[in-house]
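Help needed: design a sequence for this.
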């Protein structure tokens, strides 16, 4: 068994900051961040529950979940376990047992650049889980791995302590320091889009709003 590199967990994101983004679509957040911070290729394996929390990052060897088990011993309530599995989908990195452990410890959800299994358990529950694919094949448990380091997930760098927001469209992340200006930007974007929709419903849309609409 190979040792896991462990680093101190980052500060938890202020719950009030997370609440400020409650109900804000990930599409709008992405638009207001130059359409960049999207974890591409991941999809939701749960129902309609939103995801919001603090990134607790994990890097694993392809198909090996020893470091994720270690993470489950160190997470705090409200953390999101964000796993850089290298996009490998040959073996599942999490399943229903790890989901049960995570739920019991107040974890906000899983984001896995790799595969999961026991998908019916996720689909029937409200525990958020985003991943690249599903497979019944189980993982290795020998390591190596690392906790709370910058990781690459879906082509985007996620740092420990980043804000993680997920909805039916996918997952976006951003540093907490961006939250105040980002919140004002998404409010302004939402107002512009509401105006576009009102013009369309009233039959007065003339195309001038195409540059501000998110679609």
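Sure. Designed sequence:
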């Amino acid at each position: 068994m190979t040792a896991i590199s462990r680093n101190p967990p980052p500060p938890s994101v202020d719950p009030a900051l997370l609440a400020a983004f409650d109900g804000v679509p990930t599409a709008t957040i992405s638009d207001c961040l130059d359409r960049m911070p999207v974890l591409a290729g991941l999809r939701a394996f749960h129902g309609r529950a939103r995801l919001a929390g603090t990134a607790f990052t994990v890097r694993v060897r392809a198909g090996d979940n020893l470091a994720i088990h270690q993470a489950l011993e160190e997470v705090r309530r409200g953390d999101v376990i964000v796993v850089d599995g290298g996009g490998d989908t040959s073996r599942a990195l999490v399943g229903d047992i790890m989901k049960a452990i995570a739920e019991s410890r107040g974890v906000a959800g899983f984001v896995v650049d790799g595969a999961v299994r026991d998908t019916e358990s996720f689909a029937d529950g409200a525990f958020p889980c985003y991943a690249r694919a599903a497979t019944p094949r189980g993982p290795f448990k020998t390591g190596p791995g690392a906790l709370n380091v910058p990781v690459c997930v879906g082509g985007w760098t996620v740092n420990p302590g980043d804000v993680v927001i997920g909805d039916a469209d996918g997952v976006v992340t951003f540093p907490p320091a961006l939250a105040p200006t980002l919140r004002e930007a998404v409010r302004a974007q939402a107002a512009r889009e509401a105006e576009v929709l009102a013009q369309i419903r009233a039959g007065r849309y003339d195309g001038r709003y195409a540059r501000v609409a998110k679609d």
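The CA atoms of residues 36 and 84 lie 18 Å apart.
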